[in-house]
Write a structure and sequence with these properties.
Elements (H helix, E strand, L loop, with lengths): L12 E11 L2 E6 L4 E6 L12 E7 L2 E9 L144
Protein name: DUF3540 domain-containing protein
Length: about 220
Amino acid sequence: MQEALNFIDSPAVLRHAQINAVSGERFGVVSAQGHRYWLKTAMGCLLHPAVGDTVLITLAGEDGYILSVLERTQQQPSQLRVEGDVHLSLPSGALSIKTRDGLSADTGPMLALRADHAVAHFTEAQVGVKALSVTGERSDHYWNERNDSAIRHCEKAVRHTANYSQSRREVKGHEELTSGSLRQRVDKDWSLRGETLDLFAEVTVAVRGERIKLG
């Protein structure tokens, strides 16, 4: 193995090199002159090097760094790596991301998004959560068809209004209604059918009509 030259007390130099080995966070490189070095990547080298890459290196004294990846000869996924916290700031303009085969994000313990206005368009969407809490001042939903399925369903409202063209409700088990007062108005026919019908009133039971038929 040809040993690397000693660059102590010499100005920094730039060279092209090729990566031929990886050991932890250090990379073995061979310069165009055939010199071999073990170097680590500089903070500004966002594209993580791989074996076979042609890279730009800098050498100063006993230190050296890989500045950037110049060319990748083998077809393989690229990896951008930055140590520590990262803050991306755009004082003006917008950030646009466009991908051909999709976008995947693994944010670990938390994902936080903040915006004055948000718009999302999907052909199909599937969301799975263990617990979901949604709060706001107003919520509007518009669907051609909606199906809800729940083992237990509970609704609470100060005022509830529902308007239907047609409505049908089927309760296979027991249904119980408790109300402070109840009033039903039917414009046409109203029928009640059951095996047993019990009507209890503490004060008065009144039945009024032009014709009343019992039995």
